[in-house]
Amino acid sequence: MAAPGHKQFGAPIAPGATLPLGDVLAKPDEFLNRTVTVEAKVRRNCTRRGCWMELAQALDPALPGCRVTFKDYGFFVPLDSAGSTAKVQGTVQVTRVVPAEVAHMESEGARFASKEADGTAREVRLVASGVELWREAS
Hints:
single chain; mainly beta; CATH 2.40.50.140; five-stranded mixed β-barrel; 39% strand
């Protein structure tokens, strides 16, 4: 069950250790196909349907980040999720994104750090089974 003030999407997050997102991003191949729980900032999200979001340790665009998609497209997040803090439980993937998907996601606000000349991009992705979102008190 989500903590008070947290909104839950997808399956409830199972109890257990939360890893720093930076650890996963620094050595994604060590976490490949493993289920992890991370907590980070939502830097961007799909502004059309809420079908993806981008996590980073902070909102700074210079920091490394990763895309989060949702298992079997079984749930989406609110269109105004950017700026929230997220706790995400999901499976780590490292994927090559085809040019058509790169262009589609860029039209929704995505950015790719390692885009190739042929239009493909390699990215670390979490396929989330559960997400909790909340806004920090100011």
